Amino acid sequence: MTAATLRRLRGSMIAMAVASVALSACAPTEIPVEVRIANAAPAVSVRARGETVPVGTTNADAADDPAIWRNAANPAESLIVGTDKKAGVYVYGLDGKVRDFSNAGAVNNIDLRDTVTINGAPGILVAASDRNDLANAKLALFRLDPATAKLAPLGKVDAGAGEAYGVCFYQAADALYAFMVAKDGTINQVAIDASGATPTGRIVRTLKLGTQSEGCAVDERTGRLYVAEEDVGLWRFDATANGSTTPVKIAAADNRNIVADAEGVAIAPVGERDGYVIVSSQGDNAYAVYRLTDDSYVGRFRIVDGMIGGSEETDGIDLMLGDFGPNYPGGLFIAQDGHNAAAAQNFKLVAWDDIVKALGLK
After folding, report:
1. Which of 21, 329, 347, 349 pairs with 136 at a CA distance of 20 to 30 A?
2. Is the peptide bond before 261 cis (omega within 30 degrees of 0)?
3. How far is it, in rounded angstroms, from Cα 292 to Cα 222?
4. Which CATH number does 32-359 carry?
């Protein structure tokens, strides 16, 4: 190697080292969660009354999204379905114990609807966003047997291009729809027909947000779809198949009321049109609440340690009002817990009455 070559080599190495230092200096520094909490809007405290058994995937971001089935005849026997996004779908009782597990692979969000016609008979239809093929989103469909708490796989339907992330049902007068939220912010509205031997799906229209999105929920009384765009905030769309595709921004991820990421979304319907939409403010371990009638900010709450641990870095949430037995007489709120101390991730169960009291809701 000549002296000139050595000089060129040393020069290249020095340039690379300088570039590396410069990039490191420009790289954003993550703000500690304690600082994010201190800078965010105040949040009232509530405590969980129950929790599920941790998911089977340990040492990983695995538990993701819950959905609730209420047993009207015996509310204390209601069920919860929840995803382990590395492995499949769990069914839990309100005692938090595992009742069933379906090895569905990489699934993300989940939702369910009761009294859906399945193979010619009414049943509980469960849909999980299936991301086993990262280029092609699918809906993995199951029947949930309320008597045995067992899941029976029904098959998969196509839900458009891209990586499957969020999913939520919308039972309209004309059809049952599932909104598939792809990772890039594309939202496909899929008409679902599970009445035959094999379920089918048909994309009827496509909505769009600009960046990574996931959590969604529909207020079926008003036909409004709510979607969380992770670094941007909370949006709503017209959920009807022939409605406007233009989104309306409800709240920004402003590091005050919502601290990015904006994640799970849930609806608390009250009366004919009133109630609340709740979004997970993942960046500061809180949940922001907005009024459905006028999109106004109501307040925030946080699930803190008590007899049962609190929740942190929540992905998916779900909420259902009504009697769920003596521990949850007014309704049940469920949040994924991204830490769960030394154990694998799980889901925390909170009485809606406790949230109403803490926030002074009516």
Report:
1. 347
2. yes
3. 10
4. 2.120.10.30
Give the closest residue to 44 by CA, choosing from 348, 258, 299, 218. Answer: 299
Which residues does 303 contact at the CB level (< 8 Å), separation at least 6? 45, 46, 47, 48, 285, 287, 310, 311, 335, 348, 350
**CA distances for 211 relative to 84, 214, 231, 258, 291, angstroms:** 24, 10, 8, 17, 25
Residue pointed to by tokens 């009294």? 115
Residue 9: partners with Cβ closer than 8 Å, 6 or more residues away? 1
Using pLDDT thresholds of 50, 70 and 90, give the confidence band for residue 341.
confident
For residue 198, give Cα distances in angstroms to 92, 233, 344. 27, 37, 35
Residues 180-198 have pLDDT tens digits of: 999 999 999 999 999 999 9
The full set of domain ranges for the chain reads: 32-359
The three-point CA angle 236-238-239 to 5° equals: 105
Is the distance from CB of 190 to CB of 165 less than 8 angstroms?
no
Phi, psi (deg, nearest 5) at residue 37: -65, -45
The DSSP 8-state label assigned to residue 208 in this structure reads E
The answer to whether 332 and 352 have CB atoms below 8 angstroms apart is yes
DSSP string, 172-201: -SS-EEEEEEETTSEEEEEEEE-SSSS-EE
The whole model's pTM is what? 0.92
Q: Nearest Cα to 82, choosing from 340, 352, 335, 342?
A: 335
Radius of gyration (C-alpha) of the chain in whole angstroms: 22
285 φ, ψ (degrees, to nearest 5): 60, 40
